[in-house]
Amino acid sequence: AVAERNMYKTFTQIKSTTVTAVATAALLFAGTALAGPPDDGKARPGKPGNNGIVDGGTIVEIALAVNGSELNEFNALLSAVECFGPLTGIQGDNDIIDLLNGSDKYTLFAPTDAAFVNLLTRLKVTDPCDLDDENDTLYTVLTYHVVEGRRFSNSVFNANEAKMIETLAGVDFTSYVTMDDVPKLHDMDAQEIGLVAPLFNINAVNGVIHVIDTVLLPIDIPEDDPS
């Protein structure tokens, strides 16, 4: 409860900069548009494979390879991770990189650049590092996107009932399948998050990546600052 209050205070104390700055951030973080949801809206059963993205590699290596390709989709995510240190891959340089570049198995729900643009615009900030504060807000948000183990889509989603997914942030989100057979996630901010096809079930040597269209939030953020 104390952690949630601290995070809530951090978010609600973030003040507006300028419309120009927000627009500049949007241009800096904007990436190439990707395909929409699967034609039939269903999450495919998970199985080893790389979806044509990159051959093998850790979660970090795949994210860097995708970002260096024509997809160019993880600028904002990597910028947020870089708030904790350089993206060198050298042990001890960056806690997030160390986590996702090791031998332990994890599943990463990776937001697109557009998802980060939307969040930063909503919070009226221009840099994800603005959320890196004494309350570890940014770290909590990032680890809210990481789940222990290799979780392909058929493990994340159950067509018959919603599932609670435990994250490294210590806060759960919910996965479910809509009446139209579309897989969705539901976070603590009551957002409805979708998968970005075909970028899910991406197989890494130390886990799985699912690209999502919205940044998952571990607390409920009011639309208007009550202060």
Walk me through the topology.
Elements: H1 2-13, H2 19-29, H3 59-67, H4 75-82, H5 95-100, E1 106-111, H6 113-123, H7 137-143, E2 146-148, H8 153-156, E3 163-165, E4 173-177, E5 183-186, E6 192-194, E7 202-204, E8 207-212
Parallel strand pairs: 1-8
Antiparallel strand pairs: 1-2, 3-4, 4-5, 5-6, 7-8
Helix pairs in contact: 2-6
Describe the structure.
Helices cover 30% and strands 15% of the residues. The protein has 227 residues and is α+β, with helices and mostly antiparallel strands. It has a 4-stranded mixed β-sheet with strand order 2-1-8-7. Strands 3-4-5-6 form a 4-stranded antiparallel β-sheet, with no helix packed on it. It is globular, with a radius of gyration of 17 Å. The model is unreliable at 2-52 (pLDDT under 50).
- Mean pLDDT score, rounded? 76
Order of adjacent strands in the largest pleated sheet:
2-1-8-7
Classification by helices and strands:
alpha+beta
Count of distinct strands: 8
Q: Report the major sheet.
A: 4 strands, mixed
Quick overview:
The protein is α+β, with helices and mostly antiparallel strands. It has helices at 2-13, 19-29, 59-67, 75-82, 95-100, 113-123, 137-143, 153-156; strands at 106-111, 146-148, 163-165, 173-177, 183-186, 192-194, 202-204, 207-212.
